[in-house]
Design brief:
Blueprint lengths: L3 H6 L10 H17 L5 H30 L13 H33 L2 E3 L7 H15 L6 E3 L13 E8 L6 E7 L7 E3 L7 E5 H7 L1 H4 L4 E12 L13 H12 L4 E7 L4 H10 L7 E4 L9 H4 L20 E2 L2 E2 L2 H6 L3 E5 L8 H10 L3 E8 L7 H11 L3 E6 L7 H13 L3 E3 L6 E2 L2 E9 L2 E9 L11 E8 L2 H15 L10 E4 L3 H17 L6 E5 L5 H12 L4 E5 L16 E5 L5 E2 L2 E5 L6 E5 L5 H5 L1 E7 L3 H14 L6 E4 L5 E4 L4 H13 L1
Parallel strand pairs: 1-6, 8-9, 13-14, 14-15, 16-27, 19-24, 21-22, 22-23
Antiparallel strand pairs: 2-4, 3-4, 3-7, 5-6, 7-8, 10-11, 12-19, 13-17, 17-18, 18-19, 20-27, 21-25, 23-28, 25-26, 26-27, 28-29
Helix pairs in contact: 2-3, 2-4, 3-4, 12-13, 16-17
Amino acid sequence: MPSESSSRTRPLPADRFLNREVSWLDFNARVLELAEDEKLPLLERVKFLAIFASNLDEFFMVRIAGLKRRQTTGLTVRSPDGLTIREQLERVTRRTQDLVQRHADVFIKDVAPRLEEVGIRIVHWPQLEDDEARRLREYFRDQVFPVLTPLAVDPAHPFPYISGLSLNLAVSVRDPDSGASHFARVKVPNNVPRFIPVGPTDDTATFLPLEDLIAAHLPHLFPGLDVVSHHLFRVTRNADLEVEEDRDEDLLQALERELARRRFGPAVRLEVTESMDPQILDVLLSEMEMQPHDVLHVPGLLDLGSLWALYDLDRPELKDDPFVPVTHPRLSEGETPKSVFATLREGDVLVQHPYYSFATSVQRFIEQAAADPQVLAIKQTLYRTSGDSPIVNALIDAAEAGKQVVVLVEIKARFDEEANITWARSLERAGCHVVYGLLGLKTHCKTALVVRREHGVLRRYCHIGTGNYNPKTARTYEDLGILTADPRVGADLTDLFNTLTGYSRQTNYRMLMVAPHGIRAGLIEKIRREARHAAEGRPSGIRFKLNSLVDERIIDALYEASAAGVPVELLIRGICALRPGVPGLSETIRVRSIVGRFLEHSRVMSFTNGGDAEWWIGSSDLMHRNLDRRVEVLLRVCDDTARRDLARILDEAMAPEVRSWQLGGDGSWTRTGDVDFQAERLAEVGEHAG
């Protein structure tokens, strides 16, 4: 077996990384495979079609927008896999067009006919019966026509601004007297349902797309003119904010100014129907300063993200069986809730959502703290939360009760900026101390600290998790969290909050690794320690469960560990830039991905460490943004019961028979196994709680 020094000095091949953008598209292709899976309930397949579309929207708004922005600088920057920006965009364009075609085919040729068989139909105007058409004419007159604004394009009327992700009709009209043709745009309003019920929605449901209704009534919008043609299109714009953080300017004001600019970001994608008139397409490209390679031709309906409306139908027989998250058995006695504080004095509690209830664990922890007269202070980070947030309400109650409440609200959380600004102001009005994090960094860690007086002594209780304090996503995202009264963790969180709210420059902690200073270096040291154990014949092994693995230095450390003979098992839901199973490079590394009913979101790191295993959980994926530009926290899990629970979760998730996708060294993903890990986990937790 090669020694650590020989493996570390061996040159690594230049082609050792997979392209991150293509890897992300591969992830979304796995989502699409679930929409194609005939074993899934029909409306669950509809849900995955909608998720695929929404994912792709965000990919273009952020990732492709970022590539295009860098392309305009003229720099010949290459990605770690050696591609120029132009080459990356070309590869992404080809792959995206293939996926969009496949996405449309699944809906048009498979899912839509099956929906029709069970009484759920999407029809077009010519298919309506006379009485249906009459009712919808009245609906158009009363509910739609008043909010429409046809916008002409001519020397007196400049080309209108096209908002991002809006549906639009490009309309060609002709003056019957002069024969002159004109171009106009009609925006499909986003405050009217996309799919309009044609009749009652009970055992059967028939819908007409809103754009069809508008198209059928275009003569009402252009009286006296002949409507020659109409074509649907949709624009995606750069929505990635770049806030210039100036020490002399209020960050809140800077962000609000940038949010106002976001909707005017440059266009990065133009979706058109296959019937789009080439001349009208040329007009759109010219007016929006886009190129032909920015166009995606979409068969059938545009914006299948709107299919959520069908999924929301009350047809339980077409969906997964409902489930109710259970209360962790240590947090209740029968139906009676226990004091979270009393429970944590007996030992840590590891909760895995959505299997264990967020409401009766993490949320109850904050609510009990807010109501407890012995609690003196609550400190918490908030990255994303729900619209009507019980967490925020509890913090407001605590402040109004006279407790010291410190909340770090990350107002730069992408696409939640406006909501978080609103929360920040509500918390401030209630008397909470609200801070917005550190200059140049996003605060992404999920931490809460409660200080309680007990018998004249102050005791600290903590929560550190992998997911947001969001009761809504906690029902669909798989996440882990530790509730603990370990004084070492309490001391660490105290130091961390002092760093976040004050001028402390502390970087060393007892039980935590904290980015941007400590996580990459800490993990690489532990990976190299496993290589030393393997080289010296001691037990070694690495198991990571992540959303994404992109960081080149950590990937290279894993390659070096593989060369030393360390078994490496990686469970990565999304992007993976590492090539597993390559002879001489990564023979001992296996990468798999689970995509299913719940979004696998937790981050877990396990090191065999010569037989004295280490377990870590936290908020950080292994990407540049997490390790260099965010405040992230990984917690070392020391409670024996929690460690056994983590080991069981990873053992079951990584079992060979589990339904997953396996990554090959060439970047291809192959579906394997037939056991639904998430369904098995639901049954296991339910039985344990019962």
